[in-house]
Amino acid sequence: MGDLVIKNLTRSFIRDDGSVIHAIEGVDLSIHEEEFICVLGPSGCGKTTLLRMIAGLDLPTTGDILLEGEQIRGPNPKVGIVFQEYSLFPWRNVIDNVAFGLEMQGVGREERYHRAQPYLDLVGLSQFSGSYPSELSGGMRQRVAVARALAIEPEILLMDEPFGALDAQTRNLLQNELLEIWQKTKKTILFVTHSVDEAVFLADRLVVLTSRPGKVCEIIPIDLSRPRNRTNVEFAQVRRKVLDLISQPKCTIQ
């Protein structure tokens, strides 16, 4: 349940002028059930492209993506995704946004509300089920997006810089809440971020990608007990190790 294997994954795009952009090249990665993996790399290195292929929203040029031994070749109910931009429907209230994936699966109204409500409870927004996105703060909207992704009960949850647009205080709060949700739901999580601090705080393992074309530079185990304290010496040491690594030529090659 939740094991993801990526083999020799490559994705190239052809520009209008006929030139080729190599976004991802030769990525090999295995993610185990219930792991929390963070992917870190410079802008344009293919992090979002990688997540889109795992979600089945884009197809690789070459290579394989296997979830529980099965090829991913299109959108898959075993995969949930949360984007940075919330992507909520403004004309739907909170409970209808959370239940949207279930509706697309053909689940009846009463049943999808019944199944969506526990995830709304999980993110602490039960009292806002009838509210609309415009009535919520940015942090609350992102909680709704997380609940919506979880409501389809995926095996793996993909998160593409979900807290990148939030202020620092809200971002830290949601990081803690996400860890609580992960520990309760036992989901496998693949989380893309630009922030070394966020990656060290959240991850079991940290996957560092090179500049484009994105390749795996190094995979770093984060051997810190939870809950983690950003102010202690051990955290600072791991953070420094990661910062030193991503500044090395092997992780910044073009």
Secondary-structure blueprint:
Layout: E1 4-14, E2 20-31, E3 36-40, H1 47-54, E4 62-67, E5 70-71, E6 79-82, H2 94-98, H3 100-104, H4 109-122, H5 138-151, E7 156-160, H6 168-185, E8 188-193, H7 196-202, E9 205-209, E10 216-221, H8 233-246
Written overview of the protein:
33% of the residues lie in helices and 24% in strands. The protein starts with a strand and ends in an 8-residue tail after the last helix. With 254 residues, the chain is of the alpha/beta class. α4 (109-122) packs across α5 and α7 crosses α8 (233-246).
Q: What is the percentage of strand-forming residues?
A: 15-25%
Helix content: 25-40%
Low-confidence segments, ≥5 residues, pLDDT <50? none
| Overall pLDDT level | 90
What is the N-to-C order of secondary-structure elements (H for helix, E for strand)? EEEHEEEHHHHEHEHEEH
Count of alpha and pi helical runs: 8
Report the strand count: 10
- For the record, give the distance between the C-alpha atoms at the N and C termini, rounded to a whole number: 36 Å
Judged by helices, strands and strand pairing, the structural class is alpha/beta
Shape: globular
Query: Over the alpha carbons, how many angstroms does the gyration radius reach?
Result: 18 Å
Strand order of the largest sheet: 6-7-8-3-9-10
Biggest pleated-sheet summary: 6 strands, mixed
Descriptive terms for the model:
254 residues; alpha/beta; six-stranded mixed sheet; four-stranded antiparallel sheet; globular
Quick rundown:
With 254 residues, this protein is an alpha/beta fold.
